[in-house]
Amino acid sequence: MLRIVLILLAALWGEGLALAQEVQPVPKLAVRVTDLTETLSQDQRSSLEAKLADFERRKGAQIAVLVVPTVKPETIEEFSIRVMEGWKLGRKGVNDGVLLLVAKQDRKLRIEVGYGLEGALSDIVSKRIVSDVIAPHFKAGDFVAGIDAGVDAMLSVIAGEPLPEPTQPDDDIQNIMLFVFGPMVLLLSFAGGFMLRDKFGRLPSAAINAAATGGISSIFFLAAGIGWAAVVTAAIAFAVTWLWRPRGPRSGSSWLPSGASLPDNDWSSRRSRSSSTNDSSGSSDSDFSGGGGESGGGGASGDW
Predict the structure, then answer these.
(1) Coil, strand or helix: which one is 301?
(2) Assigned domain for 90 exists
(3) pTM value?
(4) How many domains does the structure of the chain reveal?
């Protein structure tokens, strides 16, 4: 009896020590491929990142890869759930996110699947990918091939799953920039160009106005993904400033077309912010974030 009590006390003590250890922090999500072990080279991370980004654009599902040294004192299942809860992979309401987690020192890996993909990436399918596709490469010491093969297998399965079409949120922004901001910039550039002509002449004024218009508009158009619009506005500003033939003396607003007038509003420029890159990814696509998806613990784990 005493021996049994001592064994139980030892077990409880050991469990208490494990609980007392600090759990591993969940890395910040900034890219689709996060490698904290330097297992993947920059080119390998970039190639994998591009593949996952292209799939997300076409299919909508979000797949992320995370390679960490260890998940201890937690199990890989516990840690992967914390990562999914923190990252929120997948679209909100669709829950089509997937995490491929590799704990290199623990020799453990797991595919964590969002609710919306549990039909395609079922526990059985996920287990086969872990055991039959990824693990053999890991056992041979080829982590790059294992991760790449595992990702390809998951993408192949998800590609056949009927999911909602990906949304294109940038379209509305681009339309606003083209049809609202564009005319505003041109109107102001026309006014500035004609004022410059009184001091510098036609050609210098046209060149200065085109450079200023293109520089200012490019800040906003490039952020919206339509950099060509900045070139177009600069060309229009140059042409109008160069070709305009004012009638009468250039005083007041006589250089405006008949019946035209400038708005009374004072327009101010907005500043655009650029996202910081994640050093661990080696990728310029650093504004990646989860879409609000959820996971219920579906998927499969394995080792090698």
Answers:
(1) strand
(2) yes
(3) 0.56
(4) 1
